[in-house]
Amino acid sequence: MLLFFQDKWEVEGLQTVGIILVVCSSLKLMHFLGLIDISVADSIEDDFELSTVCHRPESMDKLEELTKFTKKELQVLYRGFKNECPSGVVNEDNFKTIYSQFFPQGDSSMYAHFLFEAFDTNKNGSVSFEDFVFGLSIILRGTINDRLNWAFNLYDLNKDGCITKEEMLDIMKSIYDMMGKCTYPTMQEDAPLEHVESFFQKMDQNKDGVVTIEEFIESCKKDENIMQSMQLFDNVI
């Protein structure tokens, strides 16, 4: 996996790595929570209904209607989520602690912060089981447009509908902190800025200094590596 990241980094730059990280980190999160294997006991539904937690999620039937997961898949997702988050919600500090185990060689705290913000759609400082499965439903089962919209929202830090160079620099620095300094110890400090310029050269089609959702989706769809990374989601569970 590391060699895969190195090749992408050298050939396509951090903008592609950032897209791929959304994919792979989500898969790692699912693996960490034990969500890949769905061979679990039938007692999960009873456990779902009877478990005493601070936050009680929607019923399985309701979540099945609102997501693209089957009832059994939702049961597996809930079991893994509850094992790591017994209260039924995860706050940002806990999310960072879990996420840091994926990238022990670097500092993943800032990237985890951005990822947490993307899952915390209610902006209440916590991610519930519903938030979690709604996000995963888009990432794993959504259309290409759905997935790219989700990635755009991750990068649009202030949620104003466009990505600025300042926002992308923050993203690039967080990726560099998480992976770059260990993967490339001699990489120059201005490398994240160079990748931001490369990102905007590719995606800022009208050269107005910001990247809109339309520009982002159109540019990503033309990038073979990004499209291949989107396919990593298919048939995960």
UniProtKB/TrEMBL annotation:
Keyword Calcium assigned: yes
Keywords associated with the record: Calcium, Cell membrane, Ion channel, Ion transport, Membrane, Metal-binding, Potassium, Potassium channel, Potassium transport, Repeat, Transport, Voltage-gated channel
Keyword Ion transport included in the entry's annotation: yes
InterPro entries, sorted: EF-hand-dom_pair (IPR011992), EF_Hand_1_Ca_BS (IPR018247), EF_hand_dom (IPR002048), Recoverin (IPR028846)
Domain EF-hand positions: 107-142, 143-178, 191-226
Domain of life: Eukaryota
Coiled-coil annotated spans: none
PROSITE patterns to which the protein is assigned, alphabetical: EF_HAND_1, EF_HAND_2
GO cellular component: monoatomic ion channel complex; plasma membrane
Name of this protein: Potassium voltage-gated channel interacting protein 2
Organism in which the protein naturally occurs: Oryzias latipes (Japanese rice fish)
Organism placement in taxonomy: Eukaryota, Metazoa, Chordata, Craniata, Vertebrata
